[in-house]
Amino acid sequence: MKPEQKLQWLSYLPNIITIGRIIALGPLVYYMWQKDYQTALIITFFAGLSDGLDGFLAKRFGWQGWLGGILDPLADKAMMMLCYLVLAWQSVIPLWLFVMVVLRDVLIVLGTSYYHFKIGKIKQAQPTFWSKCNTVLQILLILFLLLDLADWWHLPFSMSWLFYAVGFTTFSSGIQYVLMGRRMARLEQSHVN
User: Rounded CA gap, 183 and 41, in Å?
Assistant: First the structure.
């Protein structure tokens, strides 16, 4: 057996790390539900490190594949949604914000699915400016809240401004994706006609 064949299993390492991050969602939700925010914060920290590590390995060594392309964003989105769900259930974040975040993602999934099956295949989805801003703010909100709830760092400011910032970027990115989808649909139909 050639040495490169012996080491071929290493190419699965990014996916193994991602699967580990998905498995860690169970303990994360459990500890958040139990209000053991310190343990939840530690799990979140290691999940963030593993996300960076699997991405680095995949790009550095060319270990990118279709499975990783599905699992990695799925793990990230599931973690975000579950954190928002628990925090909304515990009334840490306002219900209106949780509903906006969920509706935006449902709208994007339904719109993308409709486009893919009824209009044309989507080669690669590029996140928009407002979507990137939204992701950063959503992550910061969870991080700040967990730090505060774990008594590791009390915020010197009110969180309400961050709730509204996440709400604004959630709404803006949702509208931006709808407009982008309509523009792509018009272009696709003009090529067909």
Answer: 41
Query: Cα–Cα distance between 96 and 131 in angstroms, integer?
Result: 19
> From CA 18, how far away is CA 25, in angstroms rounded?
11
Q: Which helix (H) or strand (E) holds 76?
A: helix 66-89
CB 168 within 8 A of CB 102: no
Q: How far apart are CA 74 and CA 25, in angstroms?
A: 12
Using CA atoms, how far apart are residues 10 and 15, in angstroms rounded to an integer? 10
pLDDT band at 87 (very low <50, low <70, confident <90, very high): very high
Q: Taken in order 51, 53, 56, 57, is the CA torsion positive or negative?
A: negative
pLDDT in tens, 2-47: 655 556 767 788 888 999 999 999 999 999 999 999 999 999 999 9
**Which tokens sit at 51?**
């996300």
- Please tell me the distance from the alpha carbon of residue 76 to that of residue 7, in angstroms, as a whole number: 28
H and E: helices and strands count for the chain: 8, 0
- Would you give the DSSP letter of residue 119? I
Determine phi and psi for 90, rounding to 5 degrees: -85, 5
The pTM is what?
A: 0.84
